Amino acid sequence: MAVSRRTFLGTVLAGSAVSAIGVFSGTQAARAASPAGDVVGKITVGYQGWFACAGDGAPINGWWHWSQNWSQTPSTGNNVIKAWPDMREYAHAYPTAYPNLGNGQPATLFSSYDQQTVDTHFLWMQQNGCDTAALQRFNPNSSEGPTRDAMAVKVRSSAEAYGRKFYIMYDATGWTNMQSEMKADWTGKMSAHTASSAYARQNGKPVVCIWGFGFNDANHPWDAATCLDVVNWFKSQGCYVIGGVPREWRTGTGGSRSGYLGVYHAFNMLSPWMVGAIGNAADSDSVYQNINVPDQADCNANGVDYQPCVLPGDVSGRQRAHGDFMWRQFYNMVRVGAQGIYISMFDEYGEGNQIAKTAENQAMTPANSGLLALDEDGTVCSSDYYLRITNDGGRMLKGQIALTATRPTAPVAGGGGDTQPPTAPGGLQVSGHTATSVALSWTASTDNVGVTGYSVHQVAGGGNTVVGSPTGTSFTVSGLAPSTGYSFFVTARDAAGNTSAASGTVSATTDAQSGSTDLALHRPTSESSHTQVYASGNAVDGDPNSYWESNNNAFPQWLQVDLGAAQHIGRIVLTLPPPSAWNARTQTLSVSGSTDGSSFATLVGSAGYTFDPATGNTATVTLPSNASARYLRLTFTANTGWPAGQCSGFQVYSS
Hints:
By secondary structure, the chain is of the alpha/beta class. It has helices at residues 115-127, 145-162, 178-188, 224-236, 261-266, 281-302, 324-336, 385-397; strands at 43-47, 94-95, 108-109, 132-137, 165-171, 201-202, 205-211, 240-245, 269-272, 305-306, 309-310, 341-343, 426-433, 438-443, 451-460, 463-468, 474-477, 485-494, 506-509, 525-527, 548-549, 557-568, 571-575, 585-594, 601-611, 618-622, 628-639, 646-647, 649-653. Helix 1 packs across helix 2, helix 6 (281-302) runs parallel beside helix 7 (324-336) and helix 7 (324-336) runs parallel beside helix 8.
């Protein structure tokens, strides 16, 4: 079997012949090669961001990483994950073919392509001391590329919004033309993100990680000279370069090729991989003695920063020991004097070693699915437990709490074992509605400890989607289609994560649309392609200075918006950024529409539209009087000002 980061298994550590070099006393801190920055002295979490769902607007258009067959809905028989996410805080949830959860609610999953999903994850990072996110980037020169490009934009937005740092972490696994294509991807696309205030810097340099050099398997075949060339190239670009390397990097044995020590020492920081190598506290102690201690000594001697992995353990393998396994690793990594810690991983539900919020018990997993929850060993754990352990581990790394082998984090916040759910919200009613919103209100639930918030569910297609998570007893659901009927119910939750029964269901019909409302504003988008950071979402974000731009010299190209429901379309207003630097240009495009997102009919034939800064860089497309669609697609075939399709504002109006 090909070895990748997700399947890498090593030799038995307890029998390792590796000798320790200069064992530290446990109170002696290692000498840091670099001062504190965005990775030194910090907790970094590996962020996959690679889950998509059919219908989420992602270019990959499938159940990316949720199922074995991405074209088919996930189910018990089409399953590739080892743990089930806690879905209560996601605004958008996608129905699956799994049985209902043990509590009777539909089994739904999130999409990383929804900005609110990434926002929710970065909010959890902010709340739990996760300083920096390493965005995983596999070979982007494939069908996955456009979706991965879009995820970089979404991660950047969330990091900026929640005061976190992020950096690009290239995974070279299986990347045939890695040496040239990784460099081209950095200069052509990813380096643009270093302009963000949220992009991680160490020693004043933008951080880049490369995972996979030196692994002794067919999926990582490059010789040492090739790898060294890539490391030195990134350093020549002014980057601080981290290496995700085999755990036996220093000895060139086991999972590491021999003769790569010069490559490893060329990195600014080393982060040896541990997933699959340890499964209990005794394994961690063996690694500490036989690997971490001599690793740290070698890094000290060669001016390299050390960032070992800490993992929560595989839920399905019953490794977690209600947090004791993860805490032992934190204790060992802090006492060895590590310069930083890398958490493997934040959202890796496929391996089951995620710290993101996870099903607490069988009531929160699909019935008869075989998926275990956090209470698999009989200890009640709140869904955020491993986030809270990470927070405490980070505090110990930073010297904010004393070094301790005793886990300070309670499985349930407050130390209790509350399993009593709140009462159902009462008196749910519609308190108002507009063409695009419905306002709801209800009476408060009660709880033996205390209600912490509510979830507003929109009923649709035989299931329901959480559309809001207010803490009070009212909420306005926005982004709805005009003249359309909707139904809603509300549930309450407490601090232990218990969920109430559902309130009654109410229904409302939105008002008719006025002709002055932009139906496309903040709606989901998709695209044939985009270059650098100019993704399709820029065309509906309301910012006149951001824009979508397709790949160059690759006509035809298309830009699409999902209005949420089929409705009458009177006109489309297209804009380009207003600065005079944008010279006048004519773009040739057509408009097509669809009710299902797959079968499109031409609404307006191909024609040229002139955009002139002197008149606002705006063009209006008038549609036939009977035009109606849910999905609107612009197909660009020419542009006199640039060899690509361009659009800053894709505005849609009913009249």
